[in-house]
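Practice problem 4.
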Protein backbone atom coordinates (compact mmCIF):
# COMPACT_ATOMS: atom_id res chain seq x y z
CA UNK A 1 0.00 0.00 0.00
CA UNK A 2 1.43 3.39 -1.02
CA UNK A 3 2.43 5.65 1.85
CA UNK A 4 3.01 9.39 1.98
CA UNK A 5 6.35 10.84 3.13
CA UNK A 6 6.56 14.56 3.95
CA UNK A 7 9.98 16.15 3.39
CA UNK A 8 10.84 18.32 6.40
CA UNK A 9 12.86 20.71 4.22
CA UNK A 10 12.86 23.68 6.60
CA UNK A 11 15.88 25.56 7.99
CA UNK A 12 14.96 25.55 11.69
CA UNK A 13 14.21 22.77 14.15
CA UNK A 14 11.19 24.66 15.56
CA UNK A 15 9.58 24.79 12.10
CA UNK A 16 10.14 21.07 11.57
CA UNK A 17 8.69 20.28 15.01
CA UNK A 18 5.75 22.57 14.34
CA UNK A 19 5.03 20.73 11.08
CA UNK A 20 5.06 17.37 12.86
CA UNK A 21 2.62 18.77 15.46
CA UNK A 22 0.36 20.22 12.77
CA UNK A 23 0.24 16.98 10.76
CA UNK A 24 0.22 14.68 13.77
CA UNK A 25 -3.23 13.13 13.24
CA UNK A 26 -2.38 11.99 9.72
CA UNK A 27 -0.70 8.73 8.82
CA UNK A 28 2.61 10.05 7.51
CA UNK A 29 6.33 9.36 7.45
CA UNK A 30 8.73 12.31 7.81
CA UNK A 31 11.80 12.73 5.64
CA UNK A 32 14.87 14.16 7.31
CA UNK A 33 17.23 15.28 4.56
CA UNK A 34 20.75 16.64 4.65
CA UNK A 35 19.65 20.19 5.53
CA UNK A 36 17.78 19.02 8.62
CA UNK A 37 20.32 16.34 9.50
CA UNK A 38 23.30 18.71 9.54
CA UNK A 39 21.29 21.67 10.82
CA UNK A 40 19.48 20.08 13.74
CA UNK A 41 19.77 16.32 13.27
CA UNK A 42 19.88 14.97 16.81
CA UNK A 43 17.15 17.33 17.96
CA UNK A 44 14.67 16.40 15.24
CA UNK A 45 15.44 12.68 15.51
CA UNK A 46 14.80 12.86 19.24
CA UNK A 47 11.55 14.75 18.61
CA UNK A 48 10.34 12.12 16.14
CA UNK A 49 11.11 9.43 18.70
CA UNK A 50 9.34 11.32 21.50
CA UNK A 51 6.26 11.88 19.37
CA UNK A 52 6.44 8.30 18.14
CA UNK A 53 6.29 9.13 14.43
CA UNK A 54 8.04 7.17 11.70
CA UNK A 55 10.87 8.79 9.77
CA UNK A 56 13.10 8.33 6.75
CA UNK A 57 16.68 9.59 7.04
CA UNK A 58 17.62 10.71 3.54
CA UNK A 59 21.34 10.42 4.36
CA UNK A 60 22.48 9.34 0.87
CA UNK A 61 25.57 7.67 2.33
CA UNK A 62 28.54 6.91 0.08
CA UNK A 63 31.89 5.93 1.64
CA UNK A 64 33.96 2.82 2.27
CA UNK A 65 31.81 -0.09 3.52
CA UNK A 66 32.99 -0.01 7.14
CA UNK A 67 32.32 3.71 7.51
CA UNK A 68 28.86 3.45 5.98
CA UNK A 69 28.01 0.45 8.17
CA UNK A 70 29.14 2.33 11.29
CA UNK A 71 27.15 5.42 10.30
CA UNK A 72 24.00 3.39 9.66
CA UNK A 73 24.35 1.71 13.05
CA UNK A 74 24.38 5.18 14.64
CA UNK A 75 21.24 6.21 12.75
CA UNK A 76 19.14 3.16 13.59
CA UNK A 77 16.70 3.96 16.40
CA UNK A 78 13.01 3.37 17.11
CA UNK A 79 10.88 4.99 14.41
CA UNK A 80 13.53 4.77 11.68
CA UNK A 81 11.57 3.30 8.79
CA UNK A 82 13.92 3.99 5.87
CA UNK A 83 17.53 5.08 5.40
CA UNK A 84 19.34 5.37 2.09
CA UNK A 85 22.76 5.01 0.48
CA UNK A 86 24.17 5.72 -2.98
CA UNK A 87 24.26 2.62 -5.18
CA UNK A 88 27.43 4.04 -6.70
CA UNK A 89 29.14 3.17 -3.41
CA UNK A 90 29.11 -0.41 -4.70
CA UNK A 91 27.60 -3.74 -3.76
CA UNK A 92 29.90 -4.39 -0.78
CA UNK A 93 29.04 -1.03 0.72
CA UNK A 94 25.30 -1.61 0.21
CA UNK A 95 25.55 -5.11 1.75
CA UNK A 96 27.39 -3.67 4.74
CA UNK A 97 24.65 -1.04 5.12
CA UNK A 98 21.90 -3.68 5.09
CA UNK A 99 23.80 -5.91 7.53
CA UNK A 100 24.60 -3.05 9.93
CA UNK A 101 20.96 -1.90 9.87
CA UNK A 102 19.77 -5.43 10.65
CA UNK A 103 22.31 -6.02 13.40
CA UNK A 104 21.67 -2.74 15.19
CA UNK A 105 17.90 -3.16 14.89
CA UNK A 106 18.28 -6.64 16.41
CA UNK A 107 20.20 -5.18 19.36
CA UNK A 108 17.44 -2.62 19.89
CA UNK A 109 14.66 -5.19 19.45
CA UNK A 110 13.05 -3.31 16.58
CA UNK A 111 12.14 -4.11 12.96
CA UNK A 112 15.14 -3.29 10.75
CA UNK A 113 14.69 -0.15 8.66
CA UNK A 114 14.48 -0.48 4.89
CA UNK A 115 17.76 0.40 3.20
CA UNK A 116 17.02 2.11 -0.11
CA UNK A 117 19.53 2.91 -2.83
CA UNK A 118 19.77 6.11 -4.81
CA UNK A 119 20.75 5.10 -8.36
CA UNK A 120 21.43 8.12 -10.57
CA UNK A 121 20.66 11.60 -9.24
CA UNK A 122 17.97 13.31 -11.28
CA UNK A 123 20.32 16.29 -11.64
CA UNK A 124 22.62 14.12 -13.81
CA UNK A 125 22.11 14.04 -17.57
CA UNK A 126 23.91 11.67 -19.96
CA UNK A 127 26.77 14.22 -20.48
CA UNK A 128 27.40 14.41 -16.73
CA UNK A 129 27.57 10.62 -16.50
CA UNK A 130 29.93 10.38 -19.47
CA UNK A 131 32.16 13.03 -17.86
CA UNK A 132 32.36 10.73 -14.84
CA UNK A 133 33.31 7.80 -17.07
CA UNK A 134 29.89 6.11 -16.98
CA UNK A 135 28.82 5.13 -20.47
CA UNK A 136 25.17 5.12 -21.50
CA UNK A 137 22.27 7.26 -20.36
CA UNK A 138 20.71 7.74 -16.92
CA UNK A 139 18.05 5.04 -17.57
CA UNK A 140 20.40 2.16 -18.30
CA UNK A 141 22.81 3.16 -15.53
CA UNK A 142 19.90 3.39 -13.07
CA UNK A 143 18.66 -0.10 -14.04
CA UNK A 144 22.14 -1.62 -13.66
CA UNK A 145 22.57 0.02 -10.26
CA UNK A 146 19.08 -1.11 -9.18
CA UNK A 147 20.12 -4.71 -9.96
CA UNK A 148 23.20 -4.27 -7.74
CA UNK A 149 21.01 -2.80 -4.99
CA UNK A 150 18.66 -5.79 -5.17
CA UNK A 151 21.59 -8.24 -5.06
CA UNK A 152 22.96 -6.40 -2.02
CA UNK A 153 19.68 -6.92 -0.16
CA UNK A 154 18.38 -3.35 -0.38
CA UNK A 155 14.60 -3.02 -0.08
CA UNK A 156 14.30 -0.87 -3.17
CA UNK A 157 15.37 2.26 -4.99
CA UNK A 158 14.59 5.95 -5.18
CA UNK A 159 13.26 6.68 -8.67
CA UNK A 160 10.83 8.71 -10.72
CA UNK A 161 7.22 7.54 -10.68
CA UNK A 162 7.59 7.22 -14.46
CA UNK A 163 10.10 4.38 -13.88
CA UNK A 164 8.13 2.39 -11.30
CA UNK A 165 6.32 0.07 -13.72
CA UNK A 166 9.48 -0.95 -15.57
CA UNK A 167 11.40 -1.52 -12.33
CA UNK A 168 8.59 -3.65 -10.86
CA UNK A 169 8.27 -5.65 -14.09
CA UNK A 170 12.01 -6.25 -14.04
CA UNK A 171 12.72 -6.86 -10.35
CA UNK A 172 9.32 -7.95 -9.04
CA UNK A 173 6.54 -6.26 -7.07
CA UNK A 174 8.39 -6.77 -3.76
CA UNK A 175 11.24 -4.53 -4.86
CA UNK A 176 10.09 -1.23 -3.38
CA UNK A 177 10.07 2.17 -5.04
CA UNK A 178 10.23 5.59 -3.41
CA UNK A 179 9.31 8.47 -5.66
CA UNK A 180 9.86 12.23 -5.23
CA UNK A 181 8.70 14.75 -7.83
CA UNK A 182 5.02 14.47 -6.84
CA UNK A 183 2.73 17.42 -7.49
CA UNK A 184 -1.04 17.49 -6.98
CA UNK A 185 -2.79 18.84 -10.09
CA UNK A 186 -2.47 22.63 -10.09
CA UNK A 187 0.47 22.82 -7.63
CA UNK A 188 3.61 24.78 -8.55
CA UNK A 189 6.37 22.55 -9.95
CA UNK A 190 9.26 24.57 -8.46
CA UNK A 191 12.53 23.08 -9.71
CA UNK A 192 11.01 19.63 -10.38
CA UNK A 193 11.04 18.90 -14.10
CA UNK A 194 9.29 15.54 -14.52
CA UNK A 195 6.41 15.54 -12.09
CA UNK A 196 3.60 13.06 -11.46
CA UNK A 197 0.34 13.48 -9.59
CA UNK A 198 -0.30 11.45 -6.42
CA UNK A 199 -2.95 9.36 -8.25
CA UNK A 200 -0.66 8.49 -11.14
CA UNK A 201 2.16 7.54 -8.75
CA UNK A 202 -0.20 5.22 -6.81
CA UNK A 203 -1.58 3.74 -10.04
CA UNK A 204 1.99 3.09 -11.23
CA UNK A 205 2.59 1.13 -8.02
CA UNK A 206 4.91 3.51 -6.15
CA UNK A 207 5.31 2.32 -2.56
CA UNK A 208 6.36 5.65 -1.03
CA UNK A 209 5.47 9.10 -2.38
CA UNK A 210 7.72 11.95 -1.20
CA UNK A 211 6.14 15.41 -1.12
CA UNK A 212 7.82 18.54 0.19
CA UNK A 213 6.83 22.05 -0.87
CA UNK A 214 3.19 21.38 -1.84
CA UNK A 215 2.62 20.54 1.86
CA UNK A 216 5.37 22.43 3.70
CA UNK A 217 4.71 25.74 1.92
CA UNK A 218 0.91 25.40 1.81
CA UNK A 219 -1.16 27.95 3.67
CA UNK A 220 -2.82 25.02 5.43
CA UNK A 221 -0.34 22.09 5.49
CA UNK A 222 -2.84 19.79 7.22
CA UNK A 223 -5.48 20.32 4.51
CA UNK A 224 -2.84 19.94 1.77
CA UNK A 225 -1.55 16.65 3.20
CA UNK A 226 -5.06 15.34 3.78
CA UNK A 227 -6.06 16.15 0.21
CA UNK A 228 -3.07 14.17 -1.08
CA UNK A 229 -3.89 11.22 1.21
CA UNK A 230 -7.51 11.30 -0.05
CA UNK A 231 -6.32 11.37 -3.65
CA UNK A 232 -4.04 8.40 -2.93
CA UNK A 233 -6.89 6.47 -1.31
CA UNK A 234 -9.18 7.06 -4.30
CA UNK A 235 -6.45 5.88 -6.68
CA UNK A 236 -5.80 2.82 -4.49
CA UNK A 237 -9.45 1.81 -4.68
CA UNK A 238 -9.42 2.29 -8.42
CA UNK A 239 -6.50 -0.09 -8.91
CA UNK A 240 -7.68 -2.38 -6.12
CA UNK A 241 -4.36 -2.13 -4.26
O1 LIG B 1 9.48 20.07 -2.42
P1 LIG B 1 9.53 18.79 -3.19
O2 LIG B 1 8.22 18.03 -3.18
O3 LIG B 1 10.10 18.96 -4.57
O4 LIG B 1 10.56 17.89 -2.34
C1 LIG B 1 11.00 16.65 -2.79
C2 LIG B 1 12.03 16.10 -1.83
O5 LIG B 1 12.58 14.91 -2.41
C3 LIG B 1 13.20 17.02 -1.55
O6 LIG B 1 13.60 16.80 -0.19
C4 LIG B 1 14.27 16.56 -2.50
O7 LIG B 1 15.56 16.76 -1.99
C5 LIG B 1 13.99 15.05 -2.59
N1 LIG B 1 14.44 14.44 -3.84
C6 LIG B 1 14.02 14.86 -5.09
N2 LIG B 1 14.46 14.23 -6.22
C7 LIG B 1 15.30 13.20 -6.14
C8 LIG B 1 15.75 12.75 -4.89
C9 LIG B 1 15.29 13.41 -3.75
O8 LIG B 1 13.22 15.79 -5.18
N3 LIG B 1 15.67 12.58 -7.24
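Answer key:
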Amino acid sequence: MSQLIVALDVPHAQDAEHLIDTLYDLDLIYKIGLESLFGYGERILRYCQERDVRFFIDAKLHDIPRTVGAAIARLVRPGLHIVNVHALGGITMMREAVEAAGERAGELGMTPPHVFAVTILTSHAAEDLNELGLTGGPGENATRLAALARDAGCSGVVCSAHEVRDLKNFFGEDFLTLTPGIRPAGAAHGDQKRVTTPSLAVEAGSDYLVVGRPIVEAEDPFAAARAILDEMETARRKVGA
